Each structure stands twice: as C-alpha cells, then as structure tokens.
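Weekly structure sync, notes
Attendees: PL (lead), two postdocs, one rotation student
Agenda item 3: pending single-chain targets
PL asked that the sequence for the first pending target be pasted directly into the notes so everyone works from the same version. It is reproduced below exactly as submitted, 285 residues in total.
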Amino acid sequence: MRQTRFFLIFCLALGCQLFSFAQNNQTKEMKYLNPEGMTVGSRYAIEQAGDGYYRKNVTYGSFEHYLLNLPMKPIGYKTHFHDGEEKSFDVQIGVLDVKIKNSTNVCSAEPAIKLRAEYLYSSKLYGRIHFNFNNGFNCTYAKWAAGFRVNDSKNGWDHTSEQDYSRKNFLEYLDVVFQNATVPSLAREMSKVELKDVKAGDLLIQSGYPNHMAIVLDVLYNDKNNTIKIMLAQGFSPAQDIEVLKNYQDDCSPWFTISLDSDENTEILTPQWTFYVKDFKRFTN
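Predicted structure, written out during the meeting:
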C-alpha cells in the first residue's frame, strides 16, 4: 500500500513538473509570435531575434519569397500525424498549413519534395520539377505531364496517356515520387552549400543510416557579430504535419544561431536531430 501511495505521489509530482515545464516553454515562445501573422514571414517577430538581426529583401516570385508566404496553422496548433493523432514530442513553434500525404511510408524528405515541387508547379517552371528515385531513375514531371508513366521493370517510361498539366495529375505524380524518393536519393542530386551562402530553400541533410533532413524556411543576418539565424522545418515518418522547429538551446526561439566563422563540423542541435554545418545542400537547378 505504501509503495502504491508513493508511486501515485511521484507520478502526480512528475505530472505537475511536466505541466509547469510546458507552460513555461509556451510563455517563452509567445514573445516570438505575432498573433495576427498567418504566414511564415509575418508570424515570427524578427525584433525578438536579437540586436542587429535583419532579413534581406527577397525577389518576388523566388523560392525564398514562396516559403516566406506559406500559410500557417493558428498559434497553439500542435503537430499531427497523417491519421489525426497528435505528436507527443513538443518540438514545434508553428505548423505549416500545407496538406501532407496520407501514408505511413512517407519519409522526412516529404517537406523538401512537396514545397519545392509546389513552388515550381505554381510558377509553371515544369521543366525543373524532377526527383531521383532510390534506383537512380530521374522522374521528371515534364515527361509525366506529357503522358508518360514510369515502367519499373525497364527503369524507364511508357507512353500511356494524354498530355495533362492539371493539378490532379500533378498530385498523382507527387504520389509516385513520395513512394520512390528518399533522403539518400535526393542527396545525390544536390550540391554542397557554403555557410556564407545559405539561403531559404536550402536543406540540412544527412543521407547515411539513419537519415534525416530539414528545410531552411528563413535566414536572418547580423553584420555586427558575423552570424546568421536560420529557421528550420521538418517532417518525419510516418507522415506528419510540416513543423517549424523550436530551439531549446535558445529560449525556445524559432531560430538557430550559427557563426559564419564556424567550421564544417559545428553542430546544429535541433530537438530531434543533430546536424552539422557540412550538411547544408541545395538542389542543383
């Protein structure tokens, strides 16, 4: 009886501590959030990033501009898996209002594939939409839209349909990509990015085993102390909402600070993964 009573008291105390910890983190997060901001660029208060930090002007119609204007779920919305279950790990300081694939098989490459493809499709840059499969096959949207379909047995194409650039057909193309492209296969079509050149749309990617990637949504600059702050978003497997990561090492900030003097083995500690400066990559086209 005493052991049971002690256990119950211990659990109650632990629960109170966890609740207090969560409440304290929520209070910290709020100073970075603009309640009326419903896009990436307007949700987060740059003035709270620290003295001297600023966002460079981005070109209208660029990928960086697209990412800054992505819609966001309301403040307080928690990350959910594709089946509606709420994620138990408290790692997000925001969730993108972007529809995800309803699948248990989608990997952490989904945000990079989804956001890049949607940007290029909305910009009618069809010829730039392509992704490598695990077997090395380069699946191009232009071929797909022209009526060709992937023939796995010959690692090539069969011409089976009419030309179709509709959104429905585009989403069917993405479904095939999600089933066949992974973090390692995407990494093979990317080039290394020097830290001083990092911009929104670049990736932090580790293609070994285990593997993971996160996409840079925003970059702030500070000429006084020679640092940058990056905002990161990630997915995971099974498929989940695309979440903006909080930095527990920096008062639950939405930014991760990196000195431009850092060497390539400098750690970038995110809540669920440790990346390194050498992991910055970019799509080649």
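Discussion points:
- The mean pLDDT is 88.
- The longest helix spans residues 2-30.
Action: rotation student to compare against the earlier draft before next sync.
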